[in-house]
């Protein structure tokens, strides 16, 4: 049985099974595919529907043939004679891959595999489109070298190969690549749109779900539609007999733990407390929660309790330590440094006469 | 047979993107880069040709100029023998410099041909700033040793990423961002050729969105073309607004001074859901400057912060935190 996320994924750009929001954009995409398709660059937060739109676009271009995909491992050799493999999903018309899977060797993938694919032209040009499509996922984690490698390939072989890039943020895509693509921004759906989609799913599944629960799911999902649908399904699984109005939305344990930690920090700003917090942070880190996620959550729980006068300072410190955390090796130092810095700011502010 | 060939080429034509279709074919077509065009034209007539270094922002015609020049210099029959075009999509480590480039430079020219104006070979190295320092260093001697028979055209965005010895061996030409009139004129020509009706105002909007990058402008124009031909007025307005960023920013400029901290936090959340990344902060700052919202003393402070945020984000940090930092500081300085 397929997950609901896949079961109710839109199949086409417009029409009965069409996408549920950004309709104007869908129309635009349809126009683009009908005329001569340029290179595209999809960007937007996760769960906003980038991949769904790419799939729909491909179907628009080539018909249902693109659904017949197969996994192919492609082997290639780096200049230093290391043999590596990369997984690609391909149909007769398109190839999809994530070059950043192979880390710093993505340059070789772009230079060899993508270029090779771009150079060969579609066999039966008369019966179908004369170009094929290469979809590169996670384009924002491509190294600079790899991105440079794409530049000329995109121009030279534009006739028989269109490149579709998919990324979360444009910041890390170099300017020259941006200027070669049409940028399709896929913003997260609004709460109303998420609710609409959820209602559609619920109706199709004949599920009886109280409005209050639905509202809470929408709130929790923060515009991530995939998460919203998964949560809905999870709740259904947990409450087989029927969903009560006060059904709890499952919150991961570590989130509760971090919330508790934040409360402790706010409670008392002493050396002892700092030690205690350190222990807790170690605990979370040992559960393999990524440090930047811990950071984000911690800040999220701390901010609402801060007086507005110190928010700016706290955020500045947070941004600073987050950056260091990324550059440095040991996450605990930076997490702890932030906690201490926060305590310091909090204390001096509290002691100041209002 | 010949008929079939023609049909085929006609089909190809259709698939060609406009950026390729309207890429300048001769030096006369190059927009707005007079100095370099004058110099290259001189070379076409037999004057001396130094090694060249083209640099400038994307979409100003660097690669087009180099290619157009070589096309005009060499008839297509000998083009392949005389021009070596290497770009970042080719392997360009130090070994390639030592082998491929050196080998190509060493080859002597065949018997003289009358249609040959310059008895030279040309090596175009596109995107040189993506080459490693070692590879660049290895080029130093190559550039000098074979200057009798070989000229280099180096192309890059940032001249500061090249090692100084390489830069000093070439005549530098900066490609300027194209001014508004030139761009509008170019876009107008393309519009007329493609039969896409567009008003002067709309062209201006396309141009503003592309920030001096002609390729981006042409690309945008092409993506708009089917909608424009369709003539749906509302859709037309929707896409011509450019990116959604512009709208967000103008909203932001109005609401920011009067909003309090929790409002800004929630605002940041909603912005990160839809905006496109670091360019947002930069554009926002630009807009604030244009609107005179920031006073003179604070421009330096904010400018520095923009730079810091940009660095953090490019290193891989989250947008949300940095944006929040930026907006909160901005609000404080505006007050």
TrEMBL record, chain A:
List UniProt keywords, sorted A-Z: ATP-binding, DNA replication, Nucleotide-binding, Nucleus
List this protein's GO terms for biological process: DNA repair; DNA strand elongation involved in DNA replication
Q: What Gene3D superfamilies does the entry give?
A: 1.10.8.60, 1.20.272.10, P-loop containing nucleotide triphosphate hydrolases (3.40.50.300)
| Sample GO molecular function, one term | ATP binding
Recorded family membership: Belongs to the activator 1 small subunits family.
User: Subunit info?
Assistant: Subunit of the RFC complex, an heteropentameric complex consisting of a large subunit RFC1 and four small subunits RFC2, RFC3, RFC4 and RFC5; the RFC complex interacts with PCNA. Forms an heterotetrameric complex with RFC2, RFC4 and RFC5; this complex has ATPase activity but is not stimulated by PCNA. The heterotetramer of subunits RFC2, RFC3, RFC4 and RFC5 interacts with RAD17. Interacts with CNTD1; this interaction facilitates crossover formation.
- List the protein's name: Replication factor C subunit 3
Q: What is the organism lineage in this UniProt record? A: Eukaryota, Metazoa, Ecdysozoa, Nematoda, Chromadorea
Record gene name: Cni-rfc-3
TrEMBL record, chain B:
Give the record's keywords alphabetically: ATP-binding, DNA replication, Nucleotide-binding
Specify the taxonomic lineage.
Eukaryota, Metazoa, Ecdysozoa, Nematoda, Chromadorea
Note the SMART domains from the entry.
AAA
Cellular-component GO terms for this entry: DNA replication factor C complex; nucleus
Q: Name one GO biological process term.
A: DNA repair
| Top-level taxon of origin | Eukaryota
- Gene name tied to this protein: Cni-rfc-4
Which organism encodes this protein?
Answer: Caenorhabditis nigoni
Which Pfam family, just one, is annotated for this protein?
Answer: AAA
Residue ranges that the Swiss-Prot or TrEMBL entry lists as coiled coil:
none
What the entry lists under InterPro entries is as follows: AAA+_ATPase (IPR003593), ATPase_AAA_core (IPR003959), DNA_Rep/Repair_Clamp_Loader (IPR050238), P-loop_NTPase (IPR027417), RFC_lid (IPR047854)
Query: What GO terms are given for molecular function?
Result: ATP binding; ATP hydrolysis activity; DNA clamp loader activity
Protein's name in the database: AAA+ ATPase domain-containing protein
Concerning its family, UniProt says: Belongs to the activator 1 small subunits family.
Give residue ranges for domain AAA+ ATPase: 48-181
């Amino acid at each position: 049985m397929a997950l609901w996320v896949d079961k109710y994924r839109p199949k086409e750009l417009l029409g009965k099974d069409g996408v549920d929001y950004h309709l104007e954009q869908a129309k635009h995409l349809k126009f683009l595919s009908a005329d001569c398709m340029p290179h595209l660059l999809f960007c937007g937060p996760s769960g906003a529907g980038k991949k769904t739109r790419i799939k729909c676009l491909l179907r628009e271009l080539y018909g249902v043939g693109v659904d017949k995909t197969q996994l192919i491992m492609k082997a290639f050799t780096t200049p230093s004679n290391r043999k590596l493999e990369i997984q690609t999903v391909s149909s007769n018309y398109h190839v999809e891959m994530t070059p950043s899977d192979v880390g710093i060797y993505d340059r070789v993938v772009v230079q060899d595999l993508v270029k090779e694919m771009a150079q060969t032209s579609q066999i039966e040009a008369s019966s179908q489109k004369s170009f094929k499509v290469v979809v590169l996922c996670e384009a924002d984690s491509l190294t600079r070298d790899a991105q440079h490698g794409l530049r000329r390939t995109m121009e030279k072989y534009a006739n028989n190969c269109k490149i579709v890039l998919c990324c979360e943020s444009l910041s890390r895509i170099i300017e020259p690549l941006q200027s070669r693509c049409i940028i399709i921004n896929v913003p997260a759906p609004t709460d109303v749109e998420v609710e609409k989609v959820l209602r559609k799913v619920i109706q199709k599944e004949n599920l009886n779900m109280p409005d209050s629960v639905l509202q809470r799911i929408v709130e929790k999902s923060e515009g991530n539609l995939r998460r919203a649908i998964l949560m809905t399904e999870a709740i259904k699984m947990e409450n087989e007999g029927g969903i009560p109005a006060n059904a709890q939305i499952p919150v991961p344990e570590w989130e509760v733990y971090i919330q508790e930690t934040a409360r402790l920090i706010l409670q008392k700003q002493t050396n002892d407390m700092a030690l205690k917090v350190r222990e807790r942070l170690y605990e979370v880190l040992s559960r393999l929660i990524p440090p930047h996620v811990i950071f984000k959550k911690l800040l999220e729980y701390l901010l609402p309790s801060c007086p507005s006068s110190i928010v700016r300072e706290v955020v500045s410190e947070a941004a600073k330590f987050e950056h260091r955390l990324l550059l440095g090796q040991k996450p605990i130092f930076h997490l702890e440094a932030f906690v201490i810095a926060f305590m310091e700011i909090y204390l001096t502010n509290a002691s100041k006469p209002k | 047979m010949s008929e079939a060939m023609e049909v085929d080429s006609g089909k190809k034509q259709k698939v060609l993107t406009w950026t390729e279709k309207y890429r300048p074919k001769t030096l006369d077509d190059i927009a707005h880069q007079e100095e370099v065009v004058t110099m290259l034209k001189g070379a076409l007539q037999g004057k001396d040709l130094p090694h060249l270094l083209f640099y400038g922002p994307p979409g100003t015609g660097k690669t087009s100029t180099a290619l157009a020049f070589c096309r005009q210099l060499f008839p297509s029959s000998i083009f392949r023998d005389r021009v070596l075009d290497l770009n970042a999509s080719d392997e360009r480590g130090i070994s390639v410099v030592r082998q491929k480039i050196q080998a190509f430079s060493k080859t002597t020219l065949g018997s003289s041909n009358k249609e040959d104006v310059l008895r030279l070979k040309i090596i175009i190295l596109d995107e040189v700033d993506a080459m490693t320092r070692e590879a660049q260093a290895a080029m130093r001697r190559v550039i000098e040793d074979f200057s009798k028979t070989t000229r280099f055209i180096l192309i890059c965005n940032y001249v500061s990423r090249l090692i100084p010895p390489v830069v000093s061996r070439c005549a530098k030409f900066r490609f300027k961002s194209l001014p508004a009139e030139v761009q509008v004129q170019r876009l107008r020509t393309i519009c007329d050729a493609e039969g896409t009706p567009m008003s002067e105002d709309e062209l201006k909007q396309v141009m503003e969105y592309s920030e001096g990058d002609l390729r981006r402008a042409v690309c945008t124009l092409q993506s708009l073309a089917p909608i424009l031909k369709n003539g749906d007025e509302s859709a037309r307005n929707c896409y011509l607004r450019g990116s959604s960023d512009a709208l967000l920013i103008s909203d932001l400029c109005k609401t920011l001074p009067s909003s309090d901290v929790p409002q800004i936090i929630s605002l940041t959340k909603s912005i990160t859901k839809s905006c496109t990344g670091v360019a947002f902060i930069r554009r926002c700052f630009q807009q604030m400057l244009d609107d005179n919202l920031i006073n003179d003393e604070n421009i330096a402070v904010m400018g520095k912060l923009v730079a810091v945020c940009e660095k953090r984000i490019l290193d891989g940090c989250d947008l949300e935190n940095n944006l929040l930092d930026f907006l909160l500081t901005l609000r404080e300085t505006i007050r």
